[in-house]
Each structure stands twice: as C-alpha cells, then as structure tokens.
Amino acid sequence: MVACALMIGAIAASCYRPFWRGWLIGLWALVLGAFFVLMMGGRFGLVPVETSRWGGFPLTVMLSTISLLIAFPLAILVALGRQSKMAGIRTICVLYVELIRGVPLISVLFMASFMLPLFMPQGSTIDVLVRVLIGMTLFTAAYLAEVVRGGLQALPKGQVEAAQSLGLGYWQTTFKVVLPQALRLVVPATMNTFIGAFKDTSLVTIVSLYDLTGALQLALGDADWRKFFFEGQLFVAAIYFVFCYAMSRYSLWIERHLNTGTRRQ
User: Fold this and answer.
1) Strand spans (E) along the chain
2) Cα–Cα distance for residue pair 177/186, rounded to 1 Å
3) Residue 265: what pLDDT?
4) Distance between CA 182 and CA 2 in Å, rounded?
5) Is there a contact between 134 and 168 (Cβ–Cβ < 8 Å)?
6) What does the alpha-carbon distance between residue 250 and residue 265 come to, in Å, rounded to a whole number?
7) Of 184, 177, 198, 186, whose CA–CA distance to 246 is shortest?
8) Could you please report the per-residue DSSP string of 195-207?
9) How many angstroms separate the CA atoms of 63 and 206, rounded?
10) How far apart are CA 69 and CA 55, in angstroms?
11) Is the pTM here over 0.85, yes or no?
C-alpha cells in the first residue's frame, strides 16, 4: 500500500506545472527505488517477495507508469527517425513500427516472456517482470511514435524554415521549435494512448502475472469469495473508471493550458 501510494503521489506531483523542475527527476528516482525496495522486501524486516508473486493494483500502476516513462522518449526518437533523410535509420524505424503494430499486445507479451529467453546466452535469464516491461514498452512506443509523427506532419513547414533562417541547427530546431508545437497538437491522441496502455496491463495474466483484474480472478477462485463476483467486478471497474476519467480530464486541462495563445474566441 505504501509503495502504491508513493507511485501515485509522484504521478500526481508530475501533473502540475509548478513541479516541472529538475528535482522532479530526482524525486522519481527516489520513488522508483523505494517502490522496488518495498515490493521486493528482504530489508527493514520485510519478507522477500519474488517478482513473479507481485500482483494487484501496485503491479498495474507500476507496469503502466514505467512502460510509459520509457516509451514516450523512445516514441519521439522513432517518430523523428521515420522522418530522417538517412535511409537506414528511416527503414529501421518503419520496420519497428509496422512490425509491432501488426500484432496484438498478447503476442508481444508472449514473445517477450517465452521467446526472448531463448535468445539469451546459456545459463542466463531475464526476470519475467523485466520481460513484460520490455514488451509493453516496445508496444506502447510504436503507437506513440505514430501519434508524434502525426504532430510533426501537422506542423507548418514555415516553422522549420523560420528556425533555420535564424541560424538554428537541426537539434535546436527540433527541441526548441518543432517538438513543443507538435506535441501540443497531439495531446488528445497521446492521452488516449496512455489510457489504453493503463487498461492493457490486464493482459499480463497471459504470462502468469496477476494485476488488478488477475488478482480479482484469483480471489474469486476461493469458494468464500465466489459469491462476491458481482461486487468484485464492480469494484475493479470503478478503479479503472476513476483513473481513466482522471487522465481524460487532465488531458482537457493540458489542452486549455497549452492553447491559451492560439485558442479561437
């Protein structure tokens, strides 16, 4: 419960502009470190817990948060790579996006969980939680890359030409002119992908990790709890609704906040 509260607190702090400072990165590092220490146990008198036995709402929050934190910058790089003039980089990015988007998330999780260890050196292995995180991150990044690319294409060419006329280089133009405007244009689509990633964590049961919905199914397997099937499903649905609705409202707030200078009266 403490680990989950820390993660949600860090997410809430990251949603407000006054907290958008350099120390926020340090805060996230501390929160993630504390989260894994509390969940893994073995310290401070806590019983050690294998990652394969993690479950419930903390697993849902952790998987969605970390996968999105890693997927977002990766998606920006892939989107820029798809518009690169270097044929090799552009081809790699196109193949990655089309390959990942061409299969369902269940297939990606299955490949990451059961096929990835086959490519590892003899005697070495990767934790199941890490494999699932890799699969979810790559899947989410592919969809986010297309969202970001849409924003890049919607940006008027004159913006780039104006930046170049001022003597800005490629990276200065990209990070100071192009990306801020492109990301502002795709806030609704980006948040839609975030909400989808949050709900897609329920698919990790395919690799024997039990998130919020998986924990409910395990509980309902007990005869004492089976009679509360309807109440349990309503409770889980209410949790998903509250978090998805909060993300939706935050998206609207971000749109109003960023479009102050361009909003039509």
Assistant:
1) none
2) 15
3) 47
4) 37
5) no
6) 22
7) 198
8) HHHHHHGGGGGGG
9) 15
10) 20
11) yes
Query: Per residue in 12-55, pLDDT tens?
Result: 999 888 888 889 999 999 999 999 999 998 888 889 988 888 88
The DSSP 8-state label assigned to residue 177 in this structure reads I
Q: What is the mean pLDDT of the chain?
A: 87
Residue 69, CB-side half-sphere exposure with 13 Å CA sphere = 15
Cα radius of gyration rounded to whole Å, the chain: 21
- Rounded distance, CA 164 to CA 157, Å? 11
Q: In this structure, which amino acid lies at residue 115?
A: M
CATH 3.40.50.300, domain 50-258, yes or no: no
Which contacts of 122-131 are long-range, i.e. CB under 8 A and separated by 24 or more positions?
127/51, 128/51, 128/52, 128/207, 128/208, 128/209, 129/51, 129/52, 129/54, 129/209, 131/207
Tokens 């990942």, located at residue: 100
The Cα–Cα gap between 179 and 152 comes to 7
| pLDDT in the model for residue 260 | 58
pLDDT at 175: 87
Question: Is residue 261's pLDDT more than 70?
Answer: no
Angle between helices 87-101 and 57-82 in degrees, nearest 10: 140
Helix (H, G, I), strand (E, B) or coil at 55: strand
